[in-house]
Amino acid sequence: MRKQTLRRTIAYVITLAMLGYIFITVDIETVIDRYLELSWRDLVFLLALMLSNLLLGSLRLERLLVYFGTSGIQFIEVIRANVAGLLSSLVFVNIVGSLLGRHYVLRRNGVSVAALTAIVTLERILLVLISGCLLAAGLTALFGLETLFAAARKVALIEVISVILLIILVLFSTFRWQREISVFRQLLSARYSLRLCLLALITFAANAVMLLTYVISAHALGVVEVDWLSLAAAATIVAFAAGLPISVNGWGIREVSAIYAFGHLGISAAEATAVSVLVGLVSTAAILISTPVLALKQSSKAIEKHPPTLNEQDKPQGNSIVQANTAFLLFAGPFAALLVFVTLHVPFRDTLIAINLADPLAILALSLAGLSWLSAGQPPLRFPKPFGWWVIGLSLLILSGFLNGAARFGVTEWALNNRLVGWAVLMGYLALGAMIVRIWGNHGLRRIAEVVLTTGAVIVVFDLFHREFFSFFDNTALIASNFEGFSMNRNAFAFQLLIAASAGLAYSKVIARTRLSTAYCLLLGAVFMGIWRTYSMTGIVTAIGLGLGMLLFGMVDRRIVLRSLLWIAFFVAAAWVLRWTLGLLLLADSPDITAAAPNLYILSTQTERWMAIQKGLEIWYQNPVFGAGLGAFANLRLGEAGKILVMHSVPVWLLAEFGVLGFALVASLPAAFLSRALRWRLSSLPPHVVFLIAVTVCFTVFGMTHDIFYQRVFWLVLGGCVAAWASSPYRPDRQRRPSSVSRP
Fold it and tell me: What is the dihedral of CA 165, 531, 673, 716, to 10 degrees?
């Protein structure tokens, strides 16, 4: 219940902030005057359009139920479920609201939470694809192709799409994902492909009706000087923004985007606001008018049919919650492990809005875990009791720290959005990693490790040669930044690569016995290369210490590590050859060898880092036991031009904002785990335990000098490793070294 409240609070904050911006910048009297010109005929027609859109949404939901093997539900029940989801979305963020409202109705028709989560996931994918295509068409019509490509380059969209496709290609060509390929072929068979086409057609029709609603609303409010096609093109921007899961029913963001989009056509801010508010009001009215359908008596009992699936031992599974989760988690886990490396930084006014593409999957996983627990009476994931109590303690610590800070200096956006709500998202990643291991066993964890390793390696190679190519043409705009992947921070990227290196080292002994060793060494070598090219001192020291330690204790295959290090020389030579070849072909002149390495590092002073640590220790000295509260350091705004400065040390951050009690709580479990690990026979540990030790060491060492507590990839991997620990019959603490003292 607390997590639902947090997600609802952040949606309210965003909505109210944007609405406040509208009331400050828009002449409200002009908006009201526009509404006085509306006729009843226009309102009835707009309401009919919204009701038809609701029916199209219900039809799409009915087809999705059939697609996922659920039949026997009458269409009136599907309408009730869709209306319940829309009604819930008036209170919650649309993804969570749709899931909660539909679950309320469809659970009585035999639809499991997992099946409903898979339905909502596919529905959102279709909405993003169709509305994204319409958005591209609208932007092209308004601004032209050159402007569209310029905007895509600003957010590195072309690079992101290229890297994602390249990662998928490398994964399927390197590792044998037979189970995933089998399920993928089934989902894209001729029968299912026709169903997907029908779903896409219904989604397109629903989007077309929504665009028509915006156009009719504009003409009804007296905006007649702009042609219909231009209005529809601008409406694609507004409709896409309103569908983002960051506000309540699109309020606020719909109005802000309308001012921007319609303003390009010469429409005043007041007129644009009037149009967007009218669409929002009519949409809400259509939902409220449809609510009496919820009072109808249940008319049917669904017969749920699931296609046979296989568990991690390739045996058919029974009718349980495990079976229902399989399809969703089979793709959600690896795909989240891929997308967690990709953060889009969208420019908005004078700032950048960071959007991680894996967050919606984490939110869905958290909702799936919570609803499954409530409906089935048992959690869909499994943790050791100490770890479970530790996570509960951390959640209470974050909440109490937030309340402490609110009492001392008020509620700040940083504490609420980045830390409190961000913690709920991290718990989604933790749950996602744990659930895929609960369903697929160690096979699921190995899939996550393969994706993390491959993603880190591909991004490194892509970024390296991308820089080499453009630096040849003196494109300083592309290389005037550190080697940082898609994270906009070289230290954050170095930590991501350390997790990827941990994954590669943990499974090195397993891979050494297969034919994949050559390709595996190439990927691991690329990751090592990336850690070095970030020039993150902490990253390099952690990587060297981790590698030497694992070699010393026999936790990795030495041949794999040696061959991986040799690949670094290959990448350096390949980068130089690329630059030399370009100079020879394009300029008929071979460049000097010293010019083959572009500037990948911008010098940064350590003054800010030490100042932050010193100030954090001062805050702790003033509040030694309970700390100054969540967001206390960020609230000082010690950064340049009064911007927020992030603490450069996790221990100092914990001491400053949570006190010695909070620091002791966070450090208790990692310290106990690492101290116990030193008493194990480390050379005989299974891969999931080696993986867990490696990521714990990376988190502990790297966190000493950098703020990486909220790194998503760590919590995703941690959930999988701990779940594998709980599910495995092997217990390292029961395999201690034999005592040298003999007993009679």
Answer: -20
What pLDDT does 666 receive?
A: 93
453 near 325, Cβ under 8 Å? no
d(CA 432, CA 436): 6
Mean model confidence pLDDT for the chain: 78
- Whether the per-residue pLDDT at 661 is higher than 80: the answer is yes
Q: Tens digits of per-residue pLDDT, 439-466?
A: 778 888 999 999 999 999 999 988 877 7
| pLDDT score, position 11 | 47
Q: What angle do CA 238, 240, 242 make, to 5 degrees?
A: 65
Determine how β-strand 351-356 pairs with β-strand 70-71: unpaired
List the chain domain ranges: 2-269+280-297, 351-608+685-733
Cβ contact 435:716 at 8 Å = no
**pTM across the whole model:** 0.79
Average pLDDT over residues 683-711: 92
Name the token pair of 26.
């828009």
The CA-to-CA distance between both ends of the chain, in Å, stands at 57
Q: How many CB atoms lie within 10 A of CB 101?
A: 24
Tell me the backbone φ, ψ of residue 303, rounded to 5 degrees: -105, 110
List all residues 6 or more positions away from 732 whose beta carbon is below 8 Å from its beta carbon. 677, 680, 681, 685, 689
What is the Cα–Cα distance from 156 to 341, expressed in whole angstroms?
14
Token digits for 584? 């020879």
Of the pLDDT bands very low, low, confident and very high (cuts 50, 70, 90), residue 396 is very high
Are the C-beta atoms of 600 and 479 separated by less than 8 Å? Answer: yes
Tokens of 482: 């550190």
**For residue 255, which amino acid is it?**
E
Cα separation values, 307 from 112, 304, 310, Å: 14, 10, 10
| Measured distance CA(576)–CA(580) in Å, rounded | 6
Q: Which of 160-174, 448-462, 574-588 has the lowest mean pLDDT?
A: 574-588
Which letter does DSSP use for residue 298 in this model?
A: P
HEC assignment per residue over 72-92: CCCHHHHHHHHHHHHHHHCCC
